[in-house]
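Weekly structure sync, notes
Attendees: PL (lead), two postdocs, one rotation student
Agenda item 3: pending single-chain targets
PL asked that the sequence for the first pending target be pasted directly into the notes so everyone works from the same version. It is reproduced below exactly as submitted, 689 residues in total.
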Amino acid sequence: MKSKAPLIAIILIVSLQVYSQIDPDNIEIIRDTYGVPHIHGTTDPEVAYGLAWAHAEDDFQTIQLTMLSGKGMLGHHLGKQGAAIDYVVKLLKCQETVAAEWPYLSDDYKQLIIAYTDGINAYANSYPEKVLVKGSFPITVEEVLSAYVLSLAVISGADQVIGDLVDGEVDSAPVFESSGSNAFALSRAKTADDYVYLNINSHQPLEGPSSWYEAHLISDEGWNAMGGLFPGAATIFHGTNAYLGWGHTVNYPDKVDVFELEMHPENQLKYKFDNEWKVLGKKEVTLSVKILFGIKIKVKRDVFNSIYGPVVKNDKGYFAFDLGVLHDLRAPEQWYRMNKATSWSAFREALNMVAIPGFNIVYADKASNIYYLGNAKIPIRNPKFDWQGTLPGNTAETLLSKYHTLEDLPQVLNPKSGFVFNTNNSAFSCTDSLNNPDPNLYDKTMGYRVFENNRSTRFLQLMKEQNKVSWEEFLAIKYDGQLPEEFRYPIDMNRLFQLPVGKYPQYAELLAIIQSWDRKSGYDNIGAAQFVILYNYLKETYNTSYLDSVKVLTDYEVVDALAHTYDYLKKHFKRVDIHLGDYQLLIRGDKQIPVSGIPDVITAIYSEPFKHGRVKAVQGESYIMLVRYPEEGLPIIETINAYGASNQSDSPHYDDQMLMFVNQKRKPMTLDLEEVRGNAARIYHPVRD
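Predicted structure, written out during the meeting:
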């Protein structure tokens, strides 16, 4: 009977989808003056349907990229690059995971995700001219959830481990590193007024499948949440409701395990496990790849699987890997429970699922509870082995089956300091030094990395200067763009500031600018661009990471980087004394605006080459939500997105938040449905005009 479970689950998914009944007339899409959708429905599934429709109006193309990946059809649209992702979907067995884990989802969440799927299909059916790949619609619930599995696996490091194994890098387990995020919360014990403060401020890409979309979801069944979500998501990922809110940042426990299989000397489809030989799972998959002029070719590839998980074959042998997300489909349901929690106890009950595979959580509520959690779905591991390296894949002693509970994870509730925070730094540095969790009390095999970065160092420095924090001071901390006195980059930059200016007369002006720089990163600052050009050159040259030991520079290496920076500035700007805004721009369509921020300041911005030596901001400060919780009544909410609510270039909301964003301003938002209706720019139902 067990072998039939996936088939039964797939049939169940399809049958539920067929019988989903949503009446669009029961759904209001209320657009405010910035185009942000406030979606009201009688039931939660109706709201999910409306969210799918509204988001598709604003960014159907990106949603389709997410859905095509869940279908394993991205190669039809993106060619070779998409086919590589399709292969990963097959290797990870994303759809099989959905089929096996579907029965463990609750009935109410099943109805919600079915309705969301119906909403996407309804939009595609209404606007067939906007469909990117012929035959890709309708999508199924299985494919929507498969996209979730893929996305969460990639966020957990699956793409990196696969790439490393394909390249034969097998000596140690890979460590995934992101560009950064911020979240911090202050209780009433730390604020100067009668509010609890929460800063939600992740540093995501500004465009693409993991860029933030803002929405407000309201049902008559008690759902009233606002915040950010990614294309293809049916709930808020982080944000606030009337009672509480939370922010996410990427964290670095050991979420991926790699195993070297011991293959049979005469049969390469058998591997040893204890005292027996098991047969390696092998399946030939067909990938469709678009080439020139829209022609598609079929490519066949083998995917392997073992008792340890997916298997990659390279010149050194066969290597399996495993991630928690491949064994639990409930992460999107956990976000749904977090959306609807109305108290600390209800929120903690949602956290008890431990289904979201990673991400720190910084939490605050109107009752003045604040909380930090180094959240992750981490297996219980045998301490006999070094889990930071490649494990023997021939013994039950390294086979994983159980996971750590919420109580096992590093966390702090209501510290006496009155604040919690995370900037992608150590889970054991989330408040002041007297209230931090003790790393000695936690299982070492969980692999939590212990390190600080510039943002954590600077944040703690600013908090030490404050007794009670006013709202104006809170804003100053949130928008602080200065590096700390002691750099925390993975490259030791101190030598740059010690070079004698007179020793290098050709670079004297440039070196003097950098050494006298105030370490601030406003777009009108002189010194920030020069430092970033030099630092990025060093980082690319020496391929360093925050998770590695610090690279110490020689005088030769510093002068080489100085020479590169000098030549770059002279070539593109004809001078070395430029402002950051001369070099770095926020760009959307024809609009180009100087923007503040450099890597690893609190207001971080990461850029890529654009034109004529300029760079374009592509990641960092993106969707920002700042919340004040009173003891009674609704929270006071301010938000901003880097561009606007729509990804359609003909929309007035394509770029209407850009000026506010670069000037570090925000728009007021509300959870009050009647106020939203009263100030609406447009109210309509999800049907084609």
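Discussion points:
- Residues 491-621 form a domain with the Penicillin amidase (Acylase) alpha subunit, N-terminal domain fold (CATH 1.10.1400.10).
- The two ends are 49 Å apart (CA to CA).
Action: rotation student to compare against the earlier draft before next sync.
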